[in-house]
Design goal:
heterodimer, A: Rossmann fold, 6-stranded mixed sheet, 4-stranded antiparallel sheet, B: 285 residues, MetI-like fold, 0% strand, elongated, transport (chain B), membrane (chain B), Cytochrome c550 (chain B)
Chain lengths: 270, 285
């Protein structure tokens, strides 16, 4: 069964169609990437899956599990946000309240979804370990962690809340290259080991090629091409997709591993 | 290389302030002295009874001496004791006004800033109306309508003071509301009241705290002005503005009666100002 299933989605502001997606499914353990340039409607599509598009007319049918997002009550929507599908944002540190320790933030979010006390602590630590962070990080404030750590924490939060889908909106574009690799590696691992599904929005085709199973190419609010990642990258049928792929300097075979911590100490005297 | 960075994390705000701004520390210390004087007045005043209605006609208008450091007033009360007790009145007024107007202004401001739309329009237009009155005149009018007392002073000043905090908080909250962590709270299913309380409010407070500190001096001056005009504290309460008013006709002959309470107002207002200025420099970086 699909975790997210979108049919005939049309998002309008006034008379202008800003996103039109006839069909989009995300199954467990699958990474689907929405690619396209700025203004192509990919983020709008992503946000509409949790009913987070405001000031626009959203039509169609959006199912998150068994919940119909467009007809669900506000309370039901708040319930599924985070616990079914959780958003991972572009700039990780801006997404964390600077006055709260990460652990406080995590336990508040868990309490909001009915998980409290020892159970909450356990889930918080388990989530943090799953993204390869030390649970010690829960005692820190957002300004005391790096961008990559903050982004992995956002993923840990999604896991702790029990989300089966991570909605990642340009999750690496605010990070530098080695840190991007770190985040992608974590997402891939979680997909492979836990069957976490990822709906990824990105204009970074190099990133997409390393993680996506399926690709949906959007332009000016419309889907111009979709299919398996291998197929789309190998034989792009749409001229716009070909343009996008040609614009990528190179598609690396695999994401390079982050540097060993030992490298950092090179050159330092005894 | 990493050691200094680690110690920076562990430094207390006061220590960091000390490293940056000695004037602000001086302000904090002076203010601490005034607060101590206010708290301990009944125990450290050489003539505790003189803070109230005691009279010693035979000792009236004695110049400063070992027995009376600041001299005595028209009815023979020790001016030093009265200045100490006056600190209680002035600080009580300052704290009460800042608390009442701060809470009212921040609550209205943060709601207006986060909600936007008609809620913001209503709150901000009411705020504008209050700001359109000349503050001291509105305070005066209120103080005349109500009976002269310390409570009257607090109410009269608070009414003209809150709109500044409402306006300041609204603008800060509106910008905080657009930040990523507010979006992410919404995306985690947090309802609006909790978003305001836990995410918008704590991140909107810094400029208000600075402003509150800067305004402490202003409130004390305004309170002194109201009492000076006979609309605030009245005899036998020790209040600096009232003491200045009662001593002013004696200035050419018995300068100490008016000078010491005047200096107390000056020192306290100055301390609030430099402390607020230091906080602003520190927190706005």
């Amino acid at each position: 069964m699909n975790l997210i299933s979108v049919r005939d989605l049309v998002v309008r502001i006034g008379d202008r169609v800003i996103a039109s997606v006839p069909e989009l499914d995300v199954a467990a353990g699958e990474c689907v990437a929405l690619v396209g340039e700025s203004g192509s409607g990919k983020t709008t599509t992503l946000l509409s899956t949790l009913g987070l598009v405001h000031g626009a007319d959203v039509r169609g049918r959006i199912m998150v599990g068994d919940v119909d997002v467009l007809t669900a009550s506000p309370a039901r929507l708040r319930e599924i946000r985070g616990s079914r599908a959780a958003l991972v944002m572009q700039s990780p540190q801006a997404a964390l309240n600077p006055t709260m320790r990460l652990g406080t933030l995590m336990s508040r979010a868990l309490a909001r979804h009915g998980v409290k006390g020892a159970d909450a602590r356990e889930r918080a630590e388990e989530g943090v370990r799953a993204v390869l962070l030390d649970p010690e990080i829960l005692r820190r404030y957002p300004h005391q962690v790096s961008g990559g750590q903050a982004q992995r924490f956002a993923i840990a939060l999604a896991l702790a809340l029990g989300a089966q889908v991570v909605l990642a909106d340009e999750p690496t574009s605010a990070l530098d290259v080695t840190v991007q690799a770190e985040v992608v590696a974590v997402l891939r691992r979680l997909r492979d080991e836990r069957g976490l599904a990822v709906l990824l929005v990105s204009h970074d085709l190099a990133l997409v090629s390393t993680i996506a199973d399926r690709v949906v190419v959007m332009r000016d609010g419309a889907v111009v091409e979709s299919g398996s990642a291998a197929e789309v990258f190998a034989r792009p049928s749409d001229p716009y997709t070909r343009e996008l792929i040609a614009a990528v300097p190179e598609l690396p075979e695999a994401v390079p591993a982050p540097p060993e911590p030992a490298d950092l100490h090179e050159g330092e005297g005894p | 290389m990493t050691a200094p960075a680690l110690t920076t994390l562990r430094r207390t705000p006061l220590r960091r302030l000390a490293g940056v701004d000695r004037l602000a520390v001086a302000g904090a210390v002076l203010l601490g002295v005034v607060v101590l004087a206010a708290l301990l007045a009944p125990w450290i005043a050489p003539y505790p009874g003189d803070g109230g209605s005691a009279t010693h006609p035979l000792e009236a208008l004695l110049p400063p001496s070992g027995a009376h450091w600041f001299g005595t007033d028209q009815v023979g009360r020790d001016v030093f004791s009265r200045v100490l007790f006056g600190a209680r009145t002035s600080l009580l007024i300052a704290v009460a006004v800042l608390a009442v107007s701060g809470v009212a202004g921040v609550v209205l401001g943060v709601v207006a800033g986060y909600a936007g739309g008609w809620a913001r329009d209503v709150i901000m237009r009411v705020t504008d109306i209050f700001l359109a009155f000349p503050a001291l005149l509105l305070s005066l009018a209120l103080a005349v309508v109500l009976q002269p007392s310390v409570t009257t002073v607090i109410v009269a000043i608070a009414v003209t003071w809150w709109p500044w905090y409402a306006r300041l908080t609204a603008s800060v909250a509106a910008s905080v509301a657009t930040r990523g962590f507010v979006d992410s709270a919404r995306c985690l299913g947090v309802p609006a009241p909790l978003i305001v309380l836990r995410h918008v409010l704590p991140n909107s407070l810094t400029p208000v705290l600075v402003q509150l500190s800067l305004d402490g001096g202003g409130v004390i001056l305004t309170a002194a002005a109201l009492s000076y005009l006979g609309l605030g504290a009245h005899e036998p309460t020790s209040e600096w503005g009232l003491m200045v008013q009662q001593g002013q006709s004696l200035f050419t002959t018995d300068w100490w009666v008016v000078t010491f309470p005047g200096l107390a107002i000056l020192v306290t207002a100055f301390s609030f100002n430099v402390l607020g200025e230091g906080l602003r420099a520190r927190l706005s970086r």
